[in-house]
Amino acid sequence: MKVAVLASGGKDSTYASWWALMQGWSIEAMITVKIVGDDSMMFQLQNTEIAQYQAKSIGVKWINVISQGVEDKEIDELEDTIRNLNQDLDAIVVGALRSDYQKTRIERMCERLDLISYCPLWHHDSLEHMNSLIEHGFDVRIVSVSCEGLDESWLGEKISKESLEKLIDLSEKYRFNLDGEGGEFETITLNAPHFEKAIVCEGEKIWNGNRGVWNITKIQLTP
Fold first, then answer.
1. Residues of the chain with CATH 3.90.1490.10
2. Reduced to 3 states, what is the DSSP secondary structure of residue 177?
3. What fold, for 138-221?
4. Cut 0.85: pTM above it
5. Among residues 84, 70, 86, 88, which one has the least CA distance to residue 33?
6. What is the spatial distance between Cα 53 and Cα 58, in angstroms, rounded to a whole number?
7. Is 139 exposed, middle or buried (0-12, 13-18, 19+ CB in 10 A)?
8. What does the pLDDT look like over 53-72, one tens digit per residue?
9. How far apart are CA 211 and CA 216, in angstroms?
């Protein structure tokens, strides 16, 4: 099976790429949609350039799709890129958890391209998923927060057993999604079971009263 992985650099798409390799499949490319506009209904906004380093660590091709994030046009831009790939693909693998909006549009795109759409994390239990990331050695960092209960201190925070316990308490108190699927926070992944080299980076916190981002200022693979 030859697949391409939609890679934002976050925890879910990174887990999906690991899952694909665990199936014995060949990842022909990791494709990142870089949003240069103000928002997107489909794709992650913050620090998606991390996916380029993930691809290098895994040893696969990385493709960057530049998009303004305009609704409906962004999926067309992705589709055009996949259609023009030289590789013969069998499927697209995505890390969607619960977004029907995202899953439906990816599936329709795959139908037009005569490809299979795989969503290995679809409707996984939030707590089980977060614990699985920790147990399997994923180094996940929070790079943006935008909901009540998550303050500036969470920017750049690693999701560990200790921080997950705090996140559980806050999600119950403020009623947000523990896995961030509702846009409450975004993540990047610096190491995972299928990485040959870990990623190291530095960042700066930018806080705007009730939301903020952790912008990467320096990034490299370990020697």
1. 138-221
2. coil
3. putative n-type atp pyrophosphatase, domain 2 (3.90.1490)
4. yes
5. 70
6. 9
7. buried
8. 999 999 999 999 999 999 88
9. 17
3-state secondary structure of 213: strand
CB atoms within 10 A of CB 87: 12
Ranges for all domains in the chain classified under CATH 3.40.50.620: 2-118
Mean pLDDT, residues 167-184 taken together? 95
Instruction: List the strands of the sheet with 26-35, edge to edge.
Output: 62-67, 26-35, 2-6, 91-93, 116-118
Q: Can you read off the two tokens belonging to residue 13?
A: 């798409």
Three-class DSSP labels, 137-205: CCEEEEEEECCCCCCHHHCCCECCHHHHHHHHHHHHHHCCCCCCCCCCEEEEEEECCCCCCCEEEEEEE
Predicted pLDDT of residue 65: 96
pLDDT above 80 (res 153): yes
pLDDT digits (tens, 9 = 90+) for 6-20: 999 999 999 999 999
C-alpha span between 128 and 118 (Å, rounded)? 20
Tokens standing for 102?
A: 């995202």
User: For the domain with range 2-118, which CATH number is right: 3.40.50.150, 3.40.50.620, 3.40.50.11540, 3.30.1330.60?
Assistant: 3.40.50.620
Q: Taking Cα atoms as reference points, which of 84, 86, 82 lies closest to residue 116?
A: 82
The backbone torsions φ and ψ at residue 41, rounded to the nearest 5 degrees and listed phi first, read -85, -15
pLDDT in tens, 71-104: 889 999 999 999 998 678 999 999 999 899 999 9
* CB contact at 8 A, 205 and 152: yes
